[in-house]
Amino acid sequence: MSAPVQQFALVDCNNFYVSCERIFRPDLRDTPLVVLSNNDGCVVSRSNEAKALGVKMGQPWFEVHALAEAHGILALSSNYALYADMSNRVMCILSEYSPRQEVYSIDECFVDLTGTPQLKAVSYALRERVSAWTGIPVCVGIGPTKTLAKLANYIAKKHPRSQGVFNYNALSPEQQTRLLTQIAVSEVWGVGRRLTVQLQAHGIHTVQDLRVTHTPTLRNAFGVLMEKTQRELQGTACMDLQEAPSAKKQIIASRSFGQPVQELPVLQDAISSFVANACAKLRAQDSQAALIQVFLQTNRFRKDQPQYSPCLAVPLPQATSDSLVVNRWAAALTERMYRPDYLYKKAGVMLSDITPSGLQQTDWLEPEPPTQTPLMSTLDHLNQRYGRGTVKVSSQGAYSAWQMKQERKSPHYTTDWEGLPCV
DNA sequence: TCTCCGATTAGAC
DNA sequence: CTAACGGTCTAATCGGAGA
Questions:
Q1: Which 44-83 positions of A have CB less than 7 A from strand B?
Q2: How distant is C1' of C12 from CA of A224, in Å?
Q3: pLDDT of residue A371 exceeding 70
Q4: pLDDT confidence tier of residue A301, bands split at 50, 70 and 90
Q5: pTM, 2 dp
Q6: Residue A226 region, left (φ>0) first, then alpha (ψ -120 to 50), else beta?
Q7: Would the Cβ of A102 be found within 7 angstroms of any atom in strand B?
Q8: From the alpha carbon of A404, which nucleotide's C1' atom is closest?
Q9: pLDDT tens digits for A46-69?
């Protein structure tokens, strides 16, 4: 007897950042709206109206500016505190539908609905509930594998007739084939721009083409990942739900500057902030890092200006998560790399060689260092309780010239009393 | 020849 | 008038260095 078909659902929020903004600005319901990335750089979320006007995903804002003026497109800076909070609410509701849930990204969640009776009705109810309780519209795609659930979600989004829910498992084999023949390979999860071109060169244009390609040939030309994708398209689950987020193997904190930075002290100020961020993430997952890297970058889009993008690393004899220790090393690295004749546009700190706090290799000639200093725990608690940046290292915060541009940010509606709209 | 490592590539959102 | 282009993360693969 074969195992029952899995019912993986992918729940994806529609135009997530834009939808979050609209909850508190119902007057913007019909306004073409986009949300910009950090530093107000690129478009990362678009309302349907903005899509219809031709605004592309990831497009730099300065390119869209003229079009925006002409058609009254409103652009907002991204408000991550708001999006993270709304995301938590959505994920929390979804968790009621199954004991097995994978929060895949800020706006997407896989839910194992295997064994759920009345699957279609439940899916519609789920949509309704998320919409009623949070104001966020979502679409649901169901399939026997994560890859097919993703594809089903794409169909639910694309075809209004589906009313936001599409179940691939409910199709007959003939219907499945007919459907997959109509979808371009580029829509498959794991097939990006480059691979699309290469697949096409092999005569693979549709999802169905990919599904039926001779497997060893495919494996040979495109590697294991593509083979996995193919098997998933054939209905064999190769990817399981990742219910608990695994610890990061690498942590990066970096930012483009609001304006070019030339002076070392300003750079050091920024680096200190990045260290604080990165180490806080490190401690939040109970681990320590043994390799610290710092990088600086000039503006790569300015072909007319001299370019310099150094990166320097230091391996630590003892892994640590102490911001103060990392900060001293990072400052030294920064000073080593710094050249006064360049305009820096971006910098960052990278922590790697990460191990769980309990497992670090100790030097048996030295006394064992504490895994978590009371100072750092206290700092984390204060910053959690009173907001990020309440307690800082003294090398942080004297200069603000590097801070990112955020000229169009909405209030912290859900995470700060001050952000509540007054009635 | 084998193994390890860093750099590069491709992807996701 | 000009310049204005995100941030994090993973896994696979490739090529060279060293054993």
A1: none
A2: 8
A3: no
A4: confident
A5: 0.92
A6: alpha
A7: no
A8: C6
A9: 999 999 999 999 999 999 999 999
